[in-house]
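Deliverable D4.2, example record:
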Amino acid sequence: MRSLYKGIIGFGLVSIPIQVFKAMESERVTTHWIHEPCRTRIQYQKFCPTCERPVPAEEVATGAPLPDGRFVVLPPADKLQPGDHTITIVNFPELKEIDPVFYETAYWLKPGPGGQKAYRLLTRAMRDMGRVALAEMTLRQRPSLAVVRAYNETTLMLHRMYYPESLRQDGASFGPPVEENIPDKELAMARTLIEHMAEPFEPERYPNRARLERLKQIEELMPSAVMPQTTPEREVMDLMEKLKASVDAREKHGAG
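Output generated by the structure prediction step:
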């Protein structure tokens, strides 16, 4: 497993060297668009309708649209001021105080050289107190909030978070009015059903069935797989061009 970067966790006067690793990997089965008759992968070109020509990578830029239709050209990400790779802890709330809607991406944190003792200390203290660390960080030129928590007795996990302005508040009013009366008998029945279905969360009981089905489908279709066809016309043209170039070179050499 390759680390995304090396940095430090900073709180108070304590600095803990760490390495950051992605905690999740894509569960999607890799597929590509292909041209079915020849089984060749489809290619896409960036095309400018104004200049009426394909656009090379060095001419592609990031533009922010303005209300009047103009674009402001932004500098490439590698030209931006890099972050200092410090995960700065600002306070220690309780985990239940943070709404899960703000969680975005999970990362493992591994202690770096000389950081094992402070890493263990922070892990143990947060676990014993039932608290997590709210932090500010920059990852890949992108500042964000984060939560650092004790995943188990030995390991810290970091959750990158959305900022509050990312939440679409209009969705919070989709439910019916609170004042709407619910009969006590119906409420009691709903609670009874929930109690009967209450179980601990065991993630291994819920595999990605769509992924497993797609893998099974691929395995069943493997006997029908064929190699992509080459383009013999292009190969013939390449050969003709090489032969013609050789003849021209010989003629020039003979003339000289």
